[in-house]
Amino acid sequence: MTLRIIGNRALKTLPGETTRPTAARVREALFNIWQGDVDGKRWLDLCGGSGSMGAEALCRGAVDVVAVEQWGKACALIQENWQGLAQPQQRIQVVRGQVPGILKTLVGREFDCIYFDPPYASECYGPTLAAIAQHHLLAPQGQLAVEHHPQRSLPPCPPLTLHRTKVYGNTALSFFYQP
């Protein structure tokens, strides 16, 4: 299957439902909300899947884009998709591992934008939000978007502050910021 991102660029995806690319409508909504907040920024894509969100960030000028994905085939696909998009001044990295445990390997790095999209039935929402806060991965004034089912409530995770939640059919995006 082929997926298209900004500029009608094609990305490869894996067959089946092992990875679930973020719906085009939700992807477009997120980048409309974060309009102007991606260019020149550091981007972290948690549960990267096909890498479509990070690819979109690359196309919109993010300078440092990191994906975390647990499945090896998906990691290879993300790397392949991003190699074709990254400009010489952009840094890309794909980290294989499970959230939240793998996040400790990113200690010392801060990200301006973090996108977190685990399987909706996953129990990693709370622990991952806690790890993001504990390891100081979200830069001051940074933004975190969490994709989830609209009926799922996300736990509070100080110092991250829930700003708003937007619902798009069977998908919700909850936005947190780092004060």
From TrEMBL:
<dbReference type="Pfam" id="PF03602">
    <property type="entry name" value="Cons_hypoth95"/>
</dbReference>
<dbReference type="GO" id="GO:0003676">
    <property type="term" value="F:nucleic acid binding"/>
</dbReference>
<dbReference type="GO" id="GO:0008168">
    <property type="term" value="F:methyltransferase activity"/>
</dbReference>
<dbReference type="GO" id="GO:0031167">
    <property type="term" value="P:rRNA methylation"/>
</dbReference>
<keyword id="KW-0808">Transferase</keyword>
<dbReference type="InterPro" id="IPR002052">
    <property type="entry name" value="DNA_methylase_N6_adenine_CS"/>
</dbReference>
<protein>
    <submittedName>
        <fullName>Methyltransferase</fullName>
    </submittedName>
</protein>
<dbReference type="InterPro" id="IPR004398">
    <property type="entry name" value="RNA_MeTrfase_RsmD"/>
</dbReference>
<dbReference type="InterPro" id="IPR029063">
    <property type="entry name" value="SAM-dependent_MTases_sf"/>
</dbReference>
<keyword id="KW-0489">Methyltransferase</keyword>
